[in-house]
Amino acid sequence: MKTKSPSGFYLHVPFCESKCSYCDFYSVTSITNEVITRWIRAVTAEARIREFPGVFKTLYFGGGTPSLLSKTALVEVVTKLRGVFDFDNLVETTIEVNPEDVSRDKLRTFKELGFNRISLGAQSFRDEELKFLGRRHDSETSRRALEMIREAGFKSLSLDLIHSLPGQSLSDWEYSLKSAVGFKPDHISCYQLTIKEGTKFGKLLSSGKLKEAGEDIQREMFIRTSEFLCDNGYQHYEVSNFSMGKDNESKHNSLYWEHVPYLGLGPSAHSFDGEKRWWNVSSVEKYCEELEKNRVPVADSEILSGDEFSLESLFLGLRTKKGISLDILKGYDGWEDTSAKLSALSLVEIKDGRMIPTLKGFLMADRLPLLFMD
Ligand code: SF4
Fold it and tell me: Of 107, 160, 212, 339, which one has the greatest count of Cβ atoms within 10 A?
């Protein structure tokens, strides 16, 4: 690792009670105390072999389902990590939580361990949608969880929601949005359902038993989401993310979007040192086995060339309201013409030496950078 810049720390907790129909994150559902103990031992071993001289500003426990870990397991893993890394400079400490895991006791444990931000996987406030998505909770469980989280007084609360479900109407989606806003979360992530290969939905799609929402309704939901949340005081700072003021933007995810180094531990976790990226094996068994044999559990790695780095900066930057510096664009032939065309189409604005995507630009964020390649 080369950098001493502010950095992010991520721990992948690869356990779930059951697999949601849309999810392609790596996790296993066969969980025993032995498996968790072995995983903690392996995570500790990985922590010891990773040298990371950067200063951790954010810590994020994601998954999988970190909230299903028992108090004993959570205390142990946090204590072991603190024994290896310096977490004295953290400004944001997030744990992903599923509504069905929330209890006053659990919340107390999260607080005692220093978590100051809860990211709650609510996904929808309509029971039939939750059932369709294969979630284990119902809307009442989310509501109770939200009340308890608010009562417990965490510094920041973020909610995840999913839209563009097959058959979902705009008013169905508005119901979830309104319900979410009723709890005044500091941050809301609204993801469009994308059906991925290898998931239950992916199989249903390829056998013709499921149809994705059409592009028109996806577009309508995206625009409505932005309008509704902005009318309710949120700022739309990234394609799928909204925050109540700048202070509540996800500091951890912003590090990814700004190409800042991060260290990820656990099966399938990715890391980036400013130049090189590597990712761990997506298997709890293999991950533990490699570390038990004193080997690094890396599946593969890549070193980004200067061109790849700036292309990635383009893709990441044009998904955020921060946009990208025109200095990055200057590396592309004909960038001035392309910029002028995008501005004329109201897809971007040029301000203070930066290109900033508009709402219309957000809608085609993944395609904008390609226009500079032609
Ligand atoms: S969406 Fe979350 S809870 Fe559901 S399977 Fe994926 S990681 Fe587990």
Answer: 107
